[in-house]
Amino acid sequence: MGIDSTFWNGRRVLLTGHTGFKGSWLALWLCQLGAEVHGLGLQPDTNPSLFGQLDLAKQLSGHHLLDIRDAAALASLVASCQPEVVLHLAAQPLVRRSYRDPLGTWATNVQGSLHLLEALKPLQHHCAVVMVTTDKVYENQEWDYGYREEDRLGGHDPYSASKAAAELSIASWRSSFCGQAPHQTPHLSIATARAGNVIGGGDWADDRIIPDAMRSLGVYEAISVRRPEATRPWQHVLEPLGGYLLLAEKLSAGADVFSSSFNFGPALEANRSVRELVETAICYWPGIWRDCSDSFAPHEAGRLHLQIDKAHHLLGWSPRWAFETTVNRTVSWYRAVHEGSNPLECCLDDLQAYEMTNTKTQPRAPTRPQ
After folding, report:
1. pLDDT tens per residue across span 101-124
2. What is the pLDDT of residue 94?
């Protein structure tokens, strides 16, 4: 897998959610590739924020603070920037926050996504659209086998359910309004991307294990771990972002086979427990952790793995960094910034290291019984 810099150089890109953690990393990468990036998002809700640390507002062709629930404002912005590629990351992304604000979560993740597709409908040139959801869209069976793109969608908590609903809504919109009929548009190629749990430098959100752990280490406190035995497909943030870019390149060629859903997750060995993640992290920034399991906490899935064969075979995409490298790079970023290093230089160093890493054949997940 290799990103084609000639494709992105000068390409008009609309990036939603550009002020968030993943969005900031992707905005930086796109700017490095020479793209004309128009960012759409909310004011960062953390202090610090990676968006602010990288001073991204000065690097973008357009920096627009806009709520995707505002359909009219969104349509006006799309008409103004006339994107050739859309990377849709804007979302309410936190499970625990979805319990506090379920209606806002559904409105943003489902209705906001449909507002974007409706805003793109009038375009008169081809546009590749990557709609990012999550690995939590699957009806979780708590099994040891990875979920495949054709598996049943579902969601216990409001966040997961809203993202599963977004997948259904996007698929319905694509089937209904993409094509050659009078009520359809021939100009859009739309795919959804389902990524595993991402970690990396610059995530400052609440209720996420890595930023919570890094904050504790920075003030010499024990890391509080509420679900140490839960397993997740941990991957560095650059892994799925590279997949989104590659998928957008393929969509731009117009082949229908890419207008579908794709999983982007780590190799099998990176499906680790929260306990293993934290114990590996404190190898690179010494500290201690304590079990703060809460039997009255809101429901979250205990086991979650992804099958990534489809992305490998159709896109030529494979994860590059093993679990140890991912954790080392992540913790080293936070520790270096804590000790006074420039966040932008740390991000560029990670990006350069990632681009120089060759992909290797990854171990296959166990075959699921039929």
Report:
1. 999 999 999 999 999 999 999 999
2. 87
DSSP string, 171-192: HHHHHHHBSSSTTSBSSEEEEE
Whole-angstrom Cα distance, residue 141 to residue 354? 33
Contact between 336 and 329 under an 8 Å Cβ cutoff? The reply is no
Task: Please report the pLDDT score of residue 368 as a whole number.
Answer: 37
Closest by CA to 45, choosing from 74, 67, 69, 12, is: 67
φ and ψ at 313, to 5 degrees?
-80, -40
- Chain centre to alpha carbon of residue 138: 16
Phi, psi (rounded to 5 degrees) for 74 = -65, -45
* Residues 310, 48: Cα–Cα separation, whole Å: 37
Query: How is residue 169 written in tokens?
Result: 């809504």
Q: What is the pLDDT of residue 296?
A: 55
175 token code pair: 């089937």
SS3 121: coil
Q: How many CB atoms lie within 10 A of CB 32?
A: 16
User: Do 41 and 10 meet the contact criterion of CB atoms below 8 Å apart?
Assistant: no
- Could you state, in order of their start, the residue ranges of all structural domains in the chain? 8-356
Global pTM value: 0.94
Best CA proximity match to 202, nearest among 211, 190, 194, 215: 211
pLDDT at residue 370 in the model = 39
Q: In degrees, to the nearest 5, what angle opens at C-alpha 210 toward C-alphas 200 and 277? A: 95
Which stretch of DSSP H or E encloses residue 261?
Answer: strand 261-264
8-356 placed in CATH 3.40.50.720: yes
DSSP symbols for 92-108:
---HHHHHH-HHHHHII
* pLDDT computed for residue 367 by the predictor: 39
C-alpha distance across the termini of the chain, in Å: 31
- Give me the residue label for tokens 């209606």: 103
